[in-house]
Amino acid sequence: MNPFLKNLNRVEFIITYSCTGNCKHCSESELRKNGGKLNADTAVRALEKINNAFTLQSVMTFGGEPLIYPDTVISIHNAARKMNIPKRQIITNGYFSKDNKITAQVAKNVAESGVNDILVSADAFHQETIPLKNVLLFTENLLKNGAQAVRVHPAWLVDKDNDNQYNVKTREIIKSFETLGVLPSNGNVIFPAGNALKYLGKYFDKNTAYVNRYEQDKKNIRSICIEPNGNFLNSNIHDENFLSRLAEYCPD
Ligand code: SF4
User: Fold this and answer.
1) What is the pLDDT of residue 90?
2) Is the CB of 128 under 6 A from ligand 1?
3) 248 in a domain, yes or no?
4) What does residue 31 show for φ and ψ, rounded to 5 degrees?
5) Structural domain range at position 187
6) Is the pTM of this model over 0.70?
7) How confident is the model at residue 106 (pLDDT cuts 50, 70, 90)?
8) Which atom of ligand 1 is nearest to the CA of 28?
9) Pocket flag, ligand 1, residue 93 (CB < 6 Å)
10) Count of domains in the chain?
11) How far apart are CA 79 and CA 84, in angstroms?
């Protein structure tokens, strides 16, 4: 076993960088222009191979907005459930269609797909461009169809307890979910990158070295993140021999 991969137990799939939102705090603002989407069959085959080699504990789908391509998301989670991967997560902004019937049907399909940790991103930033009523409709339909562990997943500016105008608004939005019985996750504290640095720069201290909590130790890889074009770490899932390449992984 490659010593740098001995703790690998999680796979994350970026279904697409495309998004229905245009958030002020988005760290992926440049990538969103790329478009493209993950190939569902290739993703499922890759998940099987990686799970056989490493015994995964969790799989996550996110974006961009992953539910622009619901069939891809659902194929991955159905497969993850068959493989008995215990934790199966999605992060979604809950807005992928203006048609309420489509919203309801996709929510049903997601609820039935075996996802057991659903994080709905909602806060002052998302709701500048994403209608809250559509997100609440999606959430109601998840619950109606028996979805497990649905939480609202806010982004906080500076920190959760800071009373800036955005956090105040975010607390109001969270209350709308609480009326449905949906509680908040701890959420994220916004990292100064991409749009966040461009539009919210005044909230960040130039003398503070911010730590990106999503960056992992390259000598102790716990999670691999597969991009819409199949790229990850040192390989690509479209390469038939990607597991051999992964086994050769060596940090710079
Ligand atoms: S919903 Fe997420 S990916 Fe889309 S613009 Fe907002 S922060 Fe970026």
Assistant:
1) 98
2) no
3) no
4) -65, -30
5) 3-234
6) yes
7) very high
8) 8
9) yes
10) 1
11) 9
